[in-house]
């Protein structure tokens, strides 16, 4: 019998398994996909110019010590996010404005003051400790900013924040969940920043999935079972048995689930999870968080003075960034197709999705014909993937964050739960996944009455 079995080979599951192994426990990992990495997925380009990041991509060297430790440990190379140049705000399909990156778009003076007020309010709230109040949890983010006196154009900006950060509309998440997310991520401004103060500072030259592949080697590839979706989990008090759809049965003293809480209801868990746990996890949703990556032979937007950053009220693209890796001759724009616009876009057939992306990029970049000359194109709809069902981290139903805080993410019998959604820091990021993986292994060690080793 093993000490622990881990379900899911994303960053949190791999870290949990590696930490447990480092502490002397015997481990196995079962993964439904045919690869490790979960929502971190780096796909090689046919042009041999690096890879397309279909999932998480950005890190910070000074604010995210766990992921940076792996960068150094594995000798991985990174590139800083390009900031130089002009940004674009698309107010409607045929209206756009240009502005220096890092400052407010072309709003009126009254709107700029209102935007600064709303921004500063969230920054101040996000630097406080603990959970927001139940009152704030029982109103949507849209309702919350209305009470703050938000102006119409600024309300649209708040909605973009919700779309880009969580794949939802501001009407679909609670204000408390939004604020708590910011509190776990060093403040609202750190989440939004693309420089050294924020979460979008650096990317990998050879793909973020490199970390997952290297951690898997440290665990031992013979202990990781790919293409093995779980069929049932039976907790027999003295041990726990996991059976996969392909008939593999593994018994261990403990089980760590590294699966989004939104998907717990799809597992045959016996005995069933407690009613409160089922209520809160059944209520979580994963946002419409999609990517469209357009690769070119040259970074033509740079010669036009643009840095590749744009935001849009009209969609379907909600935000875009330059994601070039010059060392690989890789030149690309990555657009996020999130929230309600992404929901509608994802229903289109592949050729229509591509056409919609290129059409909007043409509007954003003043009809430059180079838009329509990509050398490669990728898009990724996480809602369509059976073992993901959306991204980034599951979002609570309105009112559930505070009501079920005492049970959410807590161990149940021999089951322990990890995932970036549970992290006290950098929730929704790779760093958060690694953090909660460490914590899950520590919980198992304590429950097995072993002295935790330094991990």
Verbal overview:
The chain has 455 residues and is an alpha/beta fold. The chain folds into three domains: 2-38 and 209-284 and 396-447, FAD/NAD(P)-binding domain (3-Layer(bba) Sandwich); 42-62 and 75-83 and 199-204 and 286-384, Polyamine Oxidase, Chain A, domain 2 (Alpha-Beta Complex); 102-192, Orthogonal Bundle (Guanine Nucleotide Dissociation Inhibitor, domain 1), CATH 1.10.405.10. It is 32% helix and 23% strand. The protein has helices at 11-22, 65-73, 109-126, 134-137, 141-147, 152-166, 175-183, 188-192, 209-219, 275-283, 300-303, 339-345, 350-364, 400-403, 430-447; strands at residues 2-7, 27-30, 42-44, 51-53, 78-80, 86-92, 95-100, 202-204, 224-225, 230-235, 240-244, 249-257, 268-270, 285-287, 289-296, 306-312, 319-322, 331-338, 376-381, 391-395, 415-417. Strands 1, 2, 9, 10, 11, 12, 13 and 21 form an eight-stranded mixed beta sheet that branches. The protein has a seven-stranded mixed beta sheet with strand order 7-6-16-17-18-15-19. A hairpin with a 6-residue loop joins strand 16 and strand 17. The model is unreliable at 451-455 (pLDDT under 50).
Q: CATH topology of the largest domain, what is it called?
A: FAD/NAD(P)-binding domain
How many E strands?
21
Supply Rg. Answer: 22 Å
Top-tier CATH class of the largest domain:
Alpha Beta
Tell me the structural class.
Answer: alpha/beta
Percent helix among the residues?
Answer: 25-40%
Q: For the residues shown, what is the average pLDDT?
A: 96
Report, as a whole number of angstroms, the end-to-end distance. 23 Å
Under the CATH scheme, the architecture of the largest domain is 3-Layer(bba) Sandwich
Proportion of residues in extended strands: 15-25%
Molecular shape: globular
Low-confidence stretches: 451-455
Task: Count structural domains.
Answer: 3
**Main β sheet profile:** 8 strands, mixed
> How many H/I helices?
15
Going by CATH, the homologous superfamily of the largest domain would be: FAD/NAD(P)-binding domain
């Amino acid at each position: 019998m093993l000490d622990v079995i881990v379900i899911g080979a994303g960053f949190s599951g791999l870290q949990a398994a590696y930490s447990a192994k480092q502490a002397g426990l015997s481990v196995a990992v079962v993964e439904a996909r045919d690869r490790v990495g979960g929502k971190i997925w780096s796909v090689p380009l046919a042009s041999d110019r690096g890879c397309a990041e279909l999932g998480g991509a950005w890190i910070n060297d000074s604010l995210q010590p766990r992921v940076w430790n792996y960068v150094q440990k594995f000798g991985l190379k990174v590139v800083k996010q390009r900031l130089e140049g002009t940004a674009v705000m698309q107010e409607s399909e045929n209206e756009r404005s240009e502005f220096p990156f890092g400052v407010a778009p072309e709003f009126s003076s009254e709107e700029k003051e209102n935007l600064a007020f709303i921004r500063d309010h969230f920054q101040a709230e996000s630097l406080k400790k603990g959970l927001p109040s139940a009152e704030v949890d029982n109103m949507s983010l849209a309702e919350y900013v209305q009470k703050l006196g938000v102006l119409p154009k600024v309300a649209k900006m708040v909605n973009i924040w919700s779309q880009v950060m969580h794949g939802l509309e501001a009407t679909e998440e609670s204000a408390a969940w939004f604020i708590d997310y910011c509190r776990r991520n060093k403040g609202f401004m750190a989440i939004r920043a693309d420089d050294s103060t924020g979460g979008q500072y650096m990317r990998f030259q050879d793909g973020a999935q490199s970390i997952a592949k290297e951690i898997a080697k440290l665990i031992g590839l013979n202990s990781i079972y790919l293409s093995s979706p779980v069929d049932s989990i039976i907790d027999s008090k003295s041990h726990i048995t996991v059976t996969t759809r392909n008939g593999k049965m593994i018994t261990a003293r403990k089980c760590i689930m590294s699966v989004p809480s939104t998907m717990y209801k799809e597992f045959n868990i016996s005995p069933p999870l407690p009613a409160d746990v089922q209520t809160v996890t059944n209520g979580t949703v994963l946002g419409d968080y999609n990517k469209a990556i357009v690769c070119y032979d040259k970074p033509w937007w740079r010669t036009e003075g643009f840095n590749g950053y744009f935001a849009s009220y009209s969609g379907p693209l909600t935000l875009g960034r330059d994601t070039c890796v010059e060392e690989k001759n890789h030149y690309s724009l990555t657009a996020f197709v999130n929230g309600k616009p992404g929901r509608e876009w994802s229903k289109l057939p592949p050729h229509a999705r591509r056409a919609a992306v290129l059409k909007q990029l043409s509007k954003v970049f003043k009809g430059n014909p180079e838009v329509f000359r990509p050398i490669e194109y990728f898009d990724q709809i996480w809602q369509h993937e059976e073992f993901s069902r959306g991204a980034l981290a599951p979002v609570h139903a309105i009112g559930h964050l505070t009501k079920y805080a005492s049970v959410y993410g807590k161990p149940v019998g021999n089951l322990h739960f990890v995932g970036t959604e549970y992290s006290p820091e950098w929730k929704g990021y790779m760093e958060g996944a690694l953090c909660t993986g460490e914590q899950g292994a520590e919980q198992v060690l304590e429950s097995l009455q072993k002295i935790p080793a330094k991990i």
